[in-house]
Amino acid sequence: MTVMTRFKNIFDAHAHYDDGWFDSDREKVLEELPQKGVCGVVNNAVDLKSAAKAIEFAERYPYFYAAVGFHPENLEDMPEDYLDRIAELTRHPKVVAIGETGLDYHWDIPRPFQQSVFEEQIKLSLDLKMPIVVHDREAHGDVFSMLRKYRPKALVHCFSGSVELMREAVRLGSYVSLGGVVTFKNARQSVEVASEIPLDRLLLETDAPYMAPVPFRGKRCDSSMIVYAAEKIAALRGLTVQELLDITAENARSFYQVVSVD
After folding, report:
1. Edge-to-edge strand list for the sheet holding 202-204
2. Could you tell me the pTM of the whole model?
3. Which long-range CB contacts under 8 A does 159-168 form with residues at least 24 apart?
4. Are 29 and 2 in contact (CB under 8 A)?
5. In terms of DSSP bridges, do strands 154-156 and 175-178 run parallel, antiparallel, or are they unpaired?
6. d(CA 127, CA 136)
7. Distance between CA atoms of residues 154 and 162, nearest Å
8. Mean pLDDT in runs of 10 for the chain (262 residues)?
9. What pLDDT does residue 5 have?
10. 14 CB-near residues (< 8 Å, 6+ apart)
């Protein structure tokens, strides 16, 4: 699926281009994204294998960066020395965050184990003075308990909480990223959050290849599709689409501490 855009300065704060959905044409997709206005992508790992892939892509494409960590759905084969191995990967100059990590109570994964691994990765992010990318699915209470306890430099990605929870995230110094969900017909909470979040704490993401916006819902998503979420949010905030893209790109550069390549 190709989306052409007249916009520039599109920074995708969270994607998964190592996913099998891109196996047939990944190189073509990644080579063409800058032509579609994309200036930055942070590819988030879910385990060591995907971390290696993210770093490989980051070495190949100037606009590409990696986050390394263990996702709560990927803990089954996690090695005992996983923290040391994540820490070693962060030595790469294009690794910009720990992630994604967090809690996912949608699936039947032992919660104490998830909580322990999440807490350990938060502590690692603090030790390394790196930002952390947080996954929060049906686990708001425990995720925010951890954020309150440690106050890491955090991005709560694909934010699904209420306006009140967004305000708590901002109070704790965290950032929030929104994506295609704001275009969904039933996305009342996401629209409310998009309408009220301080603009200096907002990032845009795709979670590619997932969460494609309307009119591509259910299809494969790529970073160029951020413009559909940007159009929705810009209209809510009384901004032009390019103004919103410029603001959120600058926020992403600040959060991840990267320099633009455009």
Report:
1. 10-15, 38-44, 64-68, 95-104, 132-137, 154-156, 175-178, 202-204
2. 0.95
3. 159/190, 159/193, 160/136, 160/189, 160/190, 161/136, 161/189, 161/193, 162/189, 162/192, 162/193, 163/189, 163/192, 163/193, 163/196, 165/140, 166/193, 166/196, 166/197, 168/144
4. no
5. parallel
6. 22
7. 17
8. 74 98 98 97 98 98 98 94 98 98 96 98 98 97 98 97 98 98 95 98 98 96 98 98 98 92 49
9. 63
10. 42, 44, 100, 133, 155, 157, 158, 177, 179, 203, 205, 206, 207
Q: How many CB atoms lie within 10 A of CB 78?
A: 15
CB environment 44-59: b (16+ within 10 A), e (fewer): bbbbbebbebbbebbe
- The single-letter DSSP state of residue 107 is S
Neighbours of 141 (CB within 10 A): 11
The pair of three-digit structure tokens given for residue 38, joined into one six-digit string: 């994309």
Q: Which three-class secondary structure state does DSSP give residue 59?
A: helix
Domains of the chain: 10-256 (3.20.20.140)
Q: Which of 19, 172, 153, 166 is nearest to 97 (CA)?
A: 153
Number of Cβ within a 10 Å radius of residue 157: 26
